[in-house]
Specification:
There is one protein chain. By secondary structure, the chain is mainly alpha-helical. It has one domain. The chain has 18 helices and 4 strands. The strands form 2 sheets. It has a two-stranded antiparallel ribbon. The protein has a two-stranded antiparallel ribbon with strand order 3-4. α3 packs antiparallel against α11. The longest helix has about 35 residues. The chain is globular.
């Protein structure tokens, strides 16, 4: 029991995010930061008891500065830039137009991140289909493709892949190893959504087509700058930046500065009309920031325990284990846990044929849509859809629908790749 005690804060954080929002939504919305803060304080206290106050303070500062800061600033930058681009009109609202938007979103997710792509495209999708009575199938497909799996081809796309990149996995490794599993998932989901959309559209009036317009040129420019800068961090290694004894690679520090500059420029210069059209609000990211800080602050004992575990390197088992954990725990911490369990050495794990890292990455990314907790955009998309009067399924009903849709695809992936 003494060995497991340091794991309690991490488990408590995840359990709170999984259970409390459904049981007591008003309480959670008001007291979330305080509840999660209690677990972080408990984790800090346990570290203080085991290693001393100075070591606990240094460990918390190290993980906050070196691990959490580069991770969260990129998510915030992609969120700010995506929320500053406006799309109006276009062919969406009809089955093949909706299909085109889902395909575009799947591609964009790897370029501008699942959060940025989701924020950019969920409003045009909902607005174009606002006249329709039944559109939940579109939101479910959107969560699977744009909010999760479409981000599988780059560290920009999904938080777990960003974690891998920050720990040394090459920038283009996901594209080389995950494009075929992604295709196996995307095609049947698109076809199933199209079939449902055609069926429901027959009962609905045809919408009036509007001209396509896109605005927010500054944010598009800043997004391109960010997209070009991040791969350079994988090949430019000028040394380390040390602040209060915590060492961060200088390339990561430069990216943090660039991301903060992009956020500041976007906030200062984006017209309010664009933000209002996208219903942009920083409050949406509050829960994500708190969740990930608490995860980073309490996950270290999990890594330490895994270093003593003797786990068989079977890709099929790791695909399903990381996948199920991702659906329950969130994709990013799942990737972190299994990456460390596999040794934590990016160079050896990413070297060909890289079956084990492929299994971990695929499980962490592709199982993300199974529950609302599986990936950060899931909750955001559900919240935005609910604000536009789409009655989304509850936690368990949603999970049941996703299991029904995705389990046959996961079985096929297992047969083909692992």
């Amino acid at each position: 029991m003494g060995q497991l005690a340091p794991l309690i804060p991490f488990a408590g954080v995840l359990l709170c995010f999984a259970v409390v929002p459904g049981l007591a939504p008003r309480f959670w919305h008001r007291w979330m930061a305080e509840v999660i803060g209690i677990w972080v304080v408990l984790g800090f206290a346990l570290q203080t008891v085991s290693g001393g106050l100075a070591a606990a303070v240094m460990a918390l500062w190290q993980v906050s500065f070196v691990e959490f800061l580069p991770f969260i600033t990129l998510l915030l930058a992609l969120y700010a830039l995506g929320g500053g681009i406006s799309i109006k009109g276009g062919p969406w609202g009809r089955p093949f137009g909706n299909l085109l938007l889902l395909i575009a979103g799947t591609v964009l997710a790897s370029i501008m991140g699942t959060i940025g792509a989701s924020l950019l495209l969920i409003h045009p999708l909902l607005a174009a289909n606002g006249y329709r009575f039944e559109k939940r199938h579109l939101i479910i497909a959107f969560i699977i493709l744009v909010g999760n799996c479409g981000g599988a081809l780059s560290p920009l796309g999904d938080p777990p892949l960003l974690v891998g990149f920050l720990r040394g996995v090459p920038f283009f490794w996901p594209a080389a190893h995950l494009w075929l599993p992604l295709l196996v998932l995307v095609v049947p989901v698109l076809l199933l959504c199209l079939a449902f959309d055609i069926y429901f559209a027959r009962k609905e009036p045809k919408p009036r087509e509007q001209p396509f317009r896109i605005s927010g040129g500054l944010n598009i420019f800043l997004l391109v700058v960010l997209i070009l800068a991040i791969p350079l961090a994988g090949i430019w290694h000028p040394g380390d930046i040390t602040i209060l004894s915590a060492k961060m690679p200088a390339e990561h520090f430069a990216l943090v500065v660039l991301e903060l500059l992009c956020i500041a420029l976007s906030e200062a210069l984006t017209p309010r009309a664009i933000r209002n059209q996208n219903r942009f609000a920083w409050e949406t990211m509050r829960e994500i920031v708190i969740l990930f800080f608490a995860i980073f602050a309490t996950i270290t004992p999990v890594f330490q325990l895994l270093q003593t575990a003797d786990l068989a390197p079977d890709p099929l088992s790791w695909f399903w284990a990381s996948g199920i954990a991702s659906a329950i725990l969130d994709a990013a911490p799942t990737y972190l846990i299994f990456f460390e369990a596999a040794g934590g050495h990016a160079a050896s794990l990413s070297a060909a044929p890289a079956h084990l890292l492929t299994a971990i990455a695929a499980g962490s990314v592709f199982f993300g849509p199974v529950t609302y907790l599986g990936n950060a955009p899931n909750l955001m998309i559900r919240e935005i859809a609910s604000r536009r009067a789409v009655k989304m399924p509850g936690f368990f009903a949603y999970a049941g629908v996703m299991i029904l849709i995705l389990t046959p695809i996961y079985v096929l992936m297992s047969f083909l790749f692992f």
